[in-house]
Design goal:
Elements (H helix, E strand, L loop, with lengths): L1 E6 L4 H10 L5 E7 L10 E6 L2 E8 L11 E4 L3 H13 L3 E4 L6 H11 L3 E4 L5 H17 L4 E8 L9 H14 L3 H4 E2 L14 E7 L5 E9 L2 E9 L3 H14 L5 E3 L1 H4 L2 H10 L1
Parallel strand pairs: 1-2, 1-5, 2-4, 5-6, 6-7, 7-13, 8-10, 9-10
Antiparallel strand pairs: 3-4, 8-11, 11-12
Helix pairs in contact: 1-7, 2-3, 4-5
Amino acid sequence: MVKAVVTGVGGRMGSRILSLVAETEGIEVIGAVEQKGHPLVGSEVGADIGTGKIYVVVESDLLKCIDKADVVIDFTNHEASIRNFEIAAGRNKAIVIGSTGFSAGEIGRIRELSQGARCVLSPNMSVGVNVMFKVIASVANILGEEYDVEIVEAHHRLKKDAPSGTAMRMAQIVADSLGRDLEETGVYARKGLIGERTRKEIGIQTVRAGDIVGEHTVMFGGIGERLEIIHRAHSRDNFARGAIRAAKWIVDQENGLYDMQDVLGLADWSLKASQA
């Protein structure tokens, strides 16, 4: 039985992970964490399931509950996730990080910590989105330079970072497939008399409205046609289930930095497909 600590349990993702772990075989929650001063700290959280009630006390410090755990599931924010990874690495525990908005320096710190610890880091843990990552790489390779690429993402009004981590991952995948530098070709806003669209630019546009869970569209626009690949999340459960799947997977891996492509076996699938 994999024993997990869930951080950020007062948030939208943390609360869903807590509930869904209770329904998932092979894993259980033995600890929960929220930031100091949060109203949930000191109270019990959990879920009622067919076999009874599963509740844990919310701590304000990961150090208070990590020792009995195998893995930490972290959906907090980029700064808190780094601190939680440092604690997990120091206790030889695995971690799954679903936070976004990391700076280049923070990603470097995660890579450094991963040399001596196990980590799954992914901006989106949905199975469908990770399949889409593979699809857009193939489409970009096939269509090449003759098709313009635009990425549009939409999320709820409370999301703090923009563009989404998922949209940025998609943009990087397309840029890599086309041999472009995203730092030079990414365009994030258009207004006024901007002139013709350049051939190499990759547009990444943001929408924030209402309670949109998450929607990502990658458009390949050619002369006389366009191809759109769309993923729409109907609830947060697909992200939560992906994180739980990653938590069960990572505990048996060697030290290193992994993503959902590794968890789902899509990296191996790409290799097999290329050899077929």
